[in-house]
From TrEMBL:
Organism: Rhodococcus chondri
Domain called tRNA-specific 2-thiouridylase MnmA-like C-terminal: residue spans: 278-354
Record-stated family: Belongs to the MnmA/TRMU family.
Function statement: Catalyzes the 2-thiolation of uridine at the wobble position (U34) of tRNA, leading to the formation of s(2)U34.
Domain tRNA-specific 2-thiouridylase MnmA-like central: 202-268
InterPro entries: MnmA-like (IPR004506), MnmA-like_C (IPR046885), MnmA-like_central (IPR046884), MnmA-like_central_sf (IPR023382), Rossmann-like_a/b/a_fold (IPR014729)
Site (Interaction with tRNA): 126, 334
Stated name of the protein: tRNA-specific 2-thiouridylase MnmA
A Pfam family hit: tRNA_Me_trans
Region (Interaction with tRNA), start-end ranges: 143-145
Length: 369
């Protein structure tokens, strides 16, 4: 097979490329330039797609003896990932840009170009298992990335390869060293790749500007503080609320709802964060077909955590989730991913974008946020 290996400059994608080369495939390496003005160096484990990363990817390709190219996707990345991220926060939502990048860039724009050039599949360093169209959690639970891949359609999965998903990270680093790859001990990248400073509020503020609103007590309706924009808040946030001290009951207060139309940020006790139902839209079913009846499974609402047993039903273009156990900090804009438990690795059934939740405290839908 002709395989296009997406090489970020990190250890995982380097070993993934090495494995497809070792398997006898015809492999070409490609690094995606996602920034119109990439930095020369990364800041520790923050950021990616720097000139340093491109150089590391090229050196890995040289060791593997494969052709290597840099493809410019900066404009597409800005439009489909960065702009979407900013617009979602401006609307009071909490998006995950890694999902959007996988959906729109790596397995859409990149894969489409790969197919047009005669490649059969795109191999990446994601930690997930994929066989015969079945997407599973990775063997290394701490590194599992199936959550951010659950947005992929059956067609997109049919032309994807995840060569490192069956191996713990520690062994991947050892393999990289044994293969003579200089990135064997390179730190993993964390946080949002296009915000290397880690200051999301400042990044959003520079693009959205000041949009004044009020921080309001959800129980009494009392205005507790003023703020400069709902983009500075997420559901479940406790610090940086601009209020003095805990609530009247002496307990901490958290962001419990965001109303972008009025600029209102509601705060209250932790009990208001617990939800038992989730409504979501833009469902993607891994099999390519929506289920015809209820699914007993497990759902996950964050990349690292937020997992609970649930019953899931397809409803129109989305899904309705009834949780068997309450989850906290569930926000509109996040993805809810449905898994079917399996000893070989939980199987991804589908995903959708959260639009509303039902609260344990009120048992009433909190509505779109």
């Amino acid at each position: 097979m002709r395989i296009l290996a997406a090489m970020s400059g990190g250890v995982d994608s380097a070993v993934a490329a090495a494995r497809v080369v070792a398997a006898g495939h015809d492999v070409v390496g490609v690094h995606l330039a996602l920034s119109s003005a990439p930095g020369t160096l990364r800041t520790g484990s923050r950021g990616c797609c720097s000139k340093e990363d491109a150089g590391d990817a090229r050196r890995a390709a040289d060791v593997l003896g494969i052709p290597f190219y840099v493809w410019d996707f900066a404009d597409r990345f800005k439009e489909d990932v960065i702009d979407d991220f900013v617009e979602s926060y401006a609307a009071g939502q909490t998006p995950n840009p890694c999902l959007r990048c996988n959906e729109k860039i790596k397995f859409s724009a990149l894969a489409d170009r790969a197919v047009a050039l005669g490649f059969d599949a795109v191999a990446t360093g994601h930690y997930a298992q994929l066989e015969d169209g079945v997407l599973r959690r990775a063997v290394d639970a701490d590194k599992d990335q199936s959550y951010v891949l659950a947005v992929l359609t059956a067609e997109q999965l049919s032309r994807a390869m995840f060569p490192v998903g069956d191996t713990p990270k520690e062994q991947i680093r050892a393999e990289a060293e044994a293969r003579g790859l200089a990135v064997a001990n390179k730190p993993d990248s964390h946080d949002i790749c296009f915000i290397p400073s880690g200051d999301t509020r400042a990044f959003l503020g520079a693009r959205i500007g000041v949009r004044p609103g009020a921080v309001v007590d959800a129980d009494s309706g009392q205005v507790l503080a003023e703020h400069e924009g709902v983009h500075g808040f997420t559901i479940g946030q406790r610090k940086g609320l601009g209020i003095s001290g805990p609530g009247p009951d002496g307990r901490p207060r958290y962001v419990t709802a965001i109303e972008p139309e009025t600029g209102t940020v509601l705060v209250g006790g932790a009990e208001r964060l617990q939800v038992l139902s989730i409504s979501a839209d833009r469902a993607v079913w891994t099999s390519g077909t929506a289920p015809t009846g209820p699914i007993e499974g497990v759902v996950q609402v964050r990349a690292h955590g937020g997992i609970a047993p649930a019953v899931v039903e397809a409803v129109g273009t989305g899904m309705q989730v009834t949780l068997r156990e309450p989850l906290t900090g569930v926000a509109a804009g996040q993805a809810v991913v449905v898994y079917r438990p399996d000893p070989a690795g939980d199987i991804v059934v589908g995903s959708a974008t959260i639009t509303a939740t039902g609260s344990v405290a009120t048992t009433e839908p909190l509505g779109d946020r």
